[in-house]
Design a protein that fits this description.
- This protein is of the alpha/beta class.
- Helices cover 24% and strands 30% of the residues.
- The protein is built from 7 helices and 19 strands.
- The strands form 5 sheets. Strands 13-16-15-14-18-19 form a 6-stranded antiparallel barrel.
- Helix 1 crosses helix 6 (169-179) and helix 3 runs antiparallel to helix 4 (94-110).
- The protein is globular and about 65 Å long.
């Protein structure tokens, strides 16, 4: 048995990861993880096309392929997390939880434990610094996916391999096209995690239905329109509110009354502009790459999936963590999303970990 498993999705990234491993003399066992909805749930899914491409790649590279069904685990854990969060008025990040609970979680229990290394097509890297390995940012700032990996455990990270970390997305496409790999021109997947054409609004609506409520001007209290349920809207949202004379931004929600508050323009006096947030459940992937006795630390951060990094001060007090932004006030902070913490070192930029953002009183 080989000591490396590769999670193959049918997309261009994991296909090139397979090729790069073969160039290193490694023939990994290939696994396609099925998490897609059942056909009778009324959603379209790319599973058949995905698995056909995976079989073609397995044959070409002389590798074993196995399809692992984690549909039940995904829908119980990740979809369950999504619905719980939106009912509370929070903004979930299913990709973060899919990586921790499914790709690096349930897969380990089903098959991964037999392997020394688990390779994926994520845009991330490993950095050796101060005597140990850390999760490092990818070369491509646009495709960097360390923010989606910022909740994996140290044990999960210890086995991980990221063959694409040193490449730009354009370079990955060029390699795939030059080799005539089956997914060379295939578009990147959209929607939640890798559920094909399943859209977030459809998923939430299927579980929570519709509950009409008012859209109210945060400043004047004037009723501007109606919505189909507060769970369809997130803090900082601009598109999809159905209001004229904008731009309008979703700035606050009253969960009990099912009211969505909006503000026209970017008025810093309204609720969605904040100077600092609390980080609930702050989690580090491989420990802290600086003095363990710290209470205040200058860091880089991402409040959402974006190529840009912000600068802030991270505070620790009696096990509680708070993030104070430099470029204050910051707009569009969505409670429930993860603030991902980074730090620069002589060996590269390290992704330290993440915490769930909550607004301070």
């Amino acid at each position: 048995m080989t000591s490396t498993a590769l999670l193959l999705s049918g997309g261009v990234d994991s296909a090139v990861a397979l090729h790069l491993l073969k160039e290193q003399g490694i023939t990994p066992d290939l696994y396609y993880i099925n998490i897609g909805p059942d056909p009778d749930q009324g959603y379209s899914c790319s599973k058949e096309e995905d698995t056909q491409i995976c079989r073609m790649l397995a044959k070409r590279y002389g590798a074993n392929l196995e399809i692992v069904d984690l549909h039940k685990e995904y829908w119980e854990n990740v979809v369950g997390y999504i619905i719980t969060q939106v009912k509370r008025g929070l903004t979930p990040n299913p990709d973060v939880m899919c990586n921790r609970l499914i790709k690096f979680g349930c897969f380990e229990d089903v098959a991964g434990r037999a392997y020394e290394h688990i390779a994926t097509g994520h845009y991330a890297s490993r950095i050796h610094y101060n005597g140990q390995d850390w999760l490092g940012a990818a070369k491509d700032p646009v495709k960097d996916q360390t923010d989606f990996l910022a909740q994996i455990t140290h044990t999960q990270f210890a086995k991980s391999v990221f063959p694409l970390g040193h490449l730009m997305k354009s370079e990955v496409r060029t390699i795939a096209q030059g080799l005539h790999l089956p997914p060379a021109s295939r578009r990147d997947s959209q929607g939640i995690c890798f559920l094909g054409n399943l859209q977030y609004k459809d998923l939430v609506g299927n579980f929570l239905g519709k509950q009409p409520g008012q859209i109210v001007d945060y400043t004047t209290g004037k009723i501007l329109g109606t919505h189909e349920g507060h769970w369809f809207h997130t803090i900082g949202q601009r598109k999809g509110l159905g209001l004229s004379g904008g731009p309008w931004y979703c700035v606050q929600k009253d969960i009990d009354a099912n009211i969505v508050y909006v503000s026209k323009g970017r008025d810093e006096s309204v609720h969605h502009f904040v100077h600092e947030v609390q980080l609930n459940g702050f989690h580090t992937i491989a420990g802290i790459p600086w003095d363990e006795e710290w209470t205040t630390r200058r860091i880089l951060y991402k409040p959402r999936h974006t190529p840009e990094f912000g600068t802030a001060t991270l505070y620790k007090n009696d096990g509680q963590y708070k993030l104070h932004f430099d470029e204050t006030p910051v707009d569009g902070i969505a409670p429930g999303q993860f603030a991902v913490i980074y730090t620069d070192t002589p060996s590269g930029r390290i992704c330290v970990g993440s915490g769930e953002m909550a607004l301070l009183p």
